[in-house]
Amino acid sequence: MPEAPAPPVLRRDPVTGEWVILAAGRSRRPHAPVPGEPAAGTQEPDCPFCEGREQETPPEVCACRDGDGCDCPGWKVRVFPNKYPILANRLPEEEAAGGGERPAYGYHEVIVDSPFHNLAPWQVGPGQTCLMLETYRDRIREYRDRDPLRYVLVMRNHKAAGAASLDHPHSQLFALPFVPPVVDAELAGFERHVSREGACVLCEMIASEEREHVRVVAASENFVAFCPYASRVPFETWLVPRAHQPRFEDNESLEEAAELLADVLMRLRNELGDPPFNYWLHTYPLRGEFRPYHWQLEIRPRITVPGGLELGAGVAVNTVPPEEAAAALRGAPGWMPARSRQDPPRRS
Predict the structure, then answer these.
(1) Does 108 participate in catalysis according to the annotation?
(2) pTM: predicted TM-score of the whole model, two decimal places
(3) Which of 177, 188, 238, 287 is most buried when burial is the number of CB atoms within 10 A of its CB?
(4) Is 9-24+63-86+104-331 a CATH 3.30.428.10 domain?
(5) What is the pLDDT of residues 221-246, one digit of tens each?
(6) What are the domain boundaries of the chain?
C-alpha cells in the first residue's frame, strides 16, 4: 500500500504573518485533463518582439545593442512602452471629488529580455540573464525622480498558463503612484519584527535556512535561493542577498545574482519540465517610506490550480512541502550552455 501522506499543517509566514496550509495529500486528488500548449515552433511566424520587427512595437525607450541606432536589429535587451497599457502616463488634473475615479497614472513597459524567440535568458546563460537584471535595475533608477511615482514592480509571466500573452521571452515593468498592498504588508511585517526583535526578519530567515539547509536550493557567496518555510505554492523559490539590502537597484554588479537566477530557473525547468511560472521583484519604494525592508525576487511555478479556499478566502494551500521541493531542486541539474555561443556584450 502507498505510504499515507502527512496530515495537513498550518505554517505562518514570518514576514506577513499570514497562514498557509501544507496539504500534501491534496496532490493525490483526481483532476480534469489540462489543455495542452502548442509545441515549440507552432507559434505565429510574425512575432512583433523578434529581432528585425522593431517597427511593429512602440518606439523603444532604451536597449542594450551591439552598436548605435534605435528601433533596429542588433539588440540584446530592448524596452518600449506597452502597446496595451494598464496605466496612463498622464497626471490627473485634479483629485476626484470624494476620492472617486481618476486617471490610472503610471508607466507600463515591456522588457524583451532575449532576442531569441524560443530561448529564455537563463537558457542562453548567465551573461544574457545579467543583461536582463541590469535592465531591471536601470529602469527602476530611471523612475526614482519622477514624482508622484512611489513604486516600480518588475515581473515576468512565463508561458500562456502563466498569463504570458506572447511566447517571446519578456518581462513587464509597472511604475505606480502607490505602494502595492502586498509590498505594504511586507513592509508592515518587517517593521513589526524589528520593533519586537531588533533585527531584519529576512536576515534571520536566511541565517536559519542556511543553518538547517533543508530548504536551500542553491547559494553563492552573496546570494541564497531557498523554498520559504511558508511557501504558498509548490516549488516557490526566493532569491535574496545575504547582506541586508533594501533596494535591488543599489547593486552595481549583478553577475553573481544572474548566475544564481539562471541556475535556479534551469533547475525548475529540468525538474518540472519547463513549467509556467511568474516571478516578481520586490524592492523598496521609491520615496515616502521609512520602514525597514530587504529585497527579494520571488518565483512561483503554476503547476496547481487555485481552488475555492484560495480564491474565496485568500488562504494558500500548498501540496508540496518546501523541504521536499528544495531537495528535488538540489538534485536537478542547473544551468548548462544550451548551445555554442558567445557571451553577449556588456552594457555600456
Answers:
(1) no
(2) 0.87
(3) 238
(4) yes
(5) 999 999 999 999 999 999 999 999 99
(6) 9-24+63-86+104-331
